[in-house]
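Raw record, unedited: Sel1 repeat family protein
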Amino acid sequence: MRNPMLHTGLLLAMLAAATPVAADVVLPPAIAASPRLKDLRRSMMAGRELSDRQLQVLADAGEGLAAARYARRLEERGLVEYLDDAAHYYSIAVYADREFAIPRLIAILRGGQAEFGPARLRNIREVLDREARTDPVAAAGLAELLLRGKPFEQDVPRARELLLAAAEAGDFKAGIRLAQSHFTGAPGLPPDPEGARRPLELALSSPDPGVQSIARTLLNQLPGGVPEFPPAPPAPAAEDWTTVSLSLRPRLRPETLQGATR
């Protein structure tokens, strides 16, 4: 006769073996080395509302979610003098794989009201350069700043590279912006309408009728006009740029990103 207790024990053992083990969260070194900061982070993750000072302490130690929340509080005060700090803490959040902070960081930089010290601006640029290699939002945003020449030095060739990468990843508005840059030219770079062909052909694949219409209008200004069979956009890479990373493993960061460097 089968022993029911033995059967139940075997079933529970099999279920336990089949249950995936949750990945350990790798904390920033400054937090991992501090029981106080670990407790504070644990409270935040449990839903406790932290004070500004508590969020700032965690953010300075490299905690990305705390950095994003603190930056948002600074931004919501509506005072120009807080905008450089807000951008700084958004950049810490982005560096810690909180990609949702990229649009706010770009928006502050685009707004032109914040004043940055050279060290802080250099750190923010390094963060955006790194993110632009894998994220089309960062690529397109940084490209716009480089085209304008504020707050970073103007670099049209680099901006065009970033816009093309973003367009090939599915940001068809970036393709339109790139085409416009080729049509109008830039200081030291004469107009090059033919350079607009590739991004415009990509923009024909946009689900937005408005973007398609602009692409067709501009293509009709080129020899051959709109292709009868536009080339298909490239297949997405193994790591789709449009997928938000859910990684909880922040990378090691330069020391200058851990504090409120001016």
